[in-house]
Write the structure tokens for this entry.
Amino acid sequence: VCRDPRWGRCYESYSEDPKIVQAMTEIISGLQGVVPAADKGRPFVAGQ
């Protein structure tokens, strides 16, 4: 929660109101879903 405009990353926060921040973080969790328990491999780096 950004309450001090001197903080350089205030523009990245949702609001100064904690209730709005809570609602927005709940939306993010809903959009991202649950992390799978089983490991399904590794991403390839540089095509290898």
About this structure: The first helix runs from residue 18 to 32.
